[in-house]
Amino acid sequence: MASSTIARASTLMAVGTTASRVLGFVKAMVLATAIGVTASVGADSFAVGNMLPNSVYMVLIGGVLSAVLVPQIVQAMAGHDGGSAYVNKLVTIAMVFLLAITALAMALAPFLVRLYAMAWSPEQLALAVGFAYWCLPQIFFYGLFNILGEVLNAKKVFGPSSWAPVLNNIVAISGLAVYIALFGADPDGNRGLDDWSSGQIALLAGSATLGVIAQSIILSLAWRKAGIRYRPDFLWRGVGFGTLGKIAGWSLATVIVMQLGGIVTTNVASTASGKGASVAALQYAWLIFMLPYSILAFSIGTAYFTRLAEHARNNKPEDMRADVSSALRVIGLVMTGSAAIVFVTAPFIALVLMDGAKPADIAALAVVIMMYILSLTPYGMLFVIQRTYFAFNDTRTPFFFTVLQILLFVGGSLLVLAFSPVELVAAMLALSFTFATMIQVAVGMFFLRKKIGGIDGKRVFVSHLKFGIAVIPTVIAGYFMLQFSAAYIDTDNLAVAIIESIIYAAILGSIYFAVLWLMRSEEITELVSQVKGKLTRR
């Protein structure tokens, strides 16, 4: 019963997230057509301006919400009112702080932009600041969206949070379409710093903000449908916010450390702006990275997280260990296969994203995608590790192994700055992130094993070893498929690239799962049994 509940919740989230991510991919394609990606000063300026809301929000409240909200609400739901008083007070205080934070961030916009792009000229900084003024109001609505979504997740209503971003992407794509119609397309990023008008800036960045507003509004309607009624409550004492503050403190410290590292790495990436793959290319590669992560790992892991919080509350260590082991293996299965597929098809993905751009610029983005995707499996495992600690209201331990990851990443970034050719800066930064994440996961699993009395380590290791073995023939087959395409197929054609990506992904996925089936992987056997069972019932 528990497994079927997780499966249903994960499937609902995965479908919604898939729709959202597909539209997000389309939005990225349209944005690349509008302002370019690689060697585009306009794209890099917009990337920094549109990145600031996420950065500021995550530093001041976002990491706190994701770390502590679900466990705290699960505990509050055991009260006589089902947690409604706690939720009302929590939402009220969050909205007050979000308004204050948004106003402060807008006042500090020039300083914040310079903090992330110290190497840029005054003209490029001014363009990025212009984008930032239109994008920074997103802070309030990101916060509102996430707190509404976390309350729904705690109450095991998983669908709306996954589907609301669909509306966000539709609004943003519409804005980009209007932008291209009015100001023309620029896939090579040739538009100079003097070619940007206030109207262009307002339309490009304003439509992005309007999309974030739309997804927040639609999620508030989902609250009413779920039977949740919000009433503002400014009496914040006596509901345990002191405990929440202590828990949130370590989470806040974690996010601050991550953002400090982000400042360093973004500044390193910005040195390549206008010369090669830079800030915008890293964001596009991260978008591709997040496709399988959000659709599969996040959807599966979020459903597990609520159960882990319940196990911690009810003091059920055996159930906790079983679910942690299951989550690590299932997420490892899908992340490893996804990484192999994306690694092989990266040249086609880059072409689809940057259709009409120079071949050298497309190739540069493909390399960045390949370097990032190597960390997909450990990043998925990291989600499980962190959420297990959060289920125990332990945000202190994740802080320390996150600090280790950031130190390694920053150290690698500085080495890239010192020794890497400018055209490889973004790719080397992505590779540095991969290395640092692998070390972080190894340390995190070591301490997690001690905390919960074991993580079924041998079983998890054997499963991941099988996943790794299955990747070898998958990648080899992909290599020969790429050679075939280069010799006999017009790989520069957008329609052909899309078709090849789909066909190759299906073939490579089939090879991966077939090899695991031959090795009698228990995860594959269980998956096939579940599918057969559903088909039989139907």
Automatic annotation (TrEMBL):
Coiled coil (residue ranges): none
Membrane-spanning intervals of the chain: 21-43, 55-78, 90-113, 125-145, 166-185, 201-223, 244-264, 284-306, 327-350, 362-385, 397-419, 425-448, 460-482, 494-519
The keyword Membrane is annotated on this UniProt entry: yes
Pfam families hit by this protein: MurJ (PF03023)
Entry membrane topology: Multi-pass membrane protein
InterPro entries tied to this protein: Lipid_II_flippase_MurJ/MviN, MurJ
Keyword Zinc-finger included in the entry's annotation: no
Gene Ontology BP terms: lipid translocation; peptidoglycan biosynthetic process; regulation of cell shape
GO molecular function: lipid-linked peptidoglycan transporter activity
A single GO cellular-component term on record: plasma membrane
Localisation: Cell membrane
Key words, A-Z: Cell membrane, Cell shape, Membrane, Peptidoglycan synthesis, Transmembrane, Transmembrane helix
Official protein name in the record: Putative peptidoglycan biosynthesis protein MviN
Lineage: Bacteria, Bacillati, Actinomycetota, Actinomycetes, Micrococcales
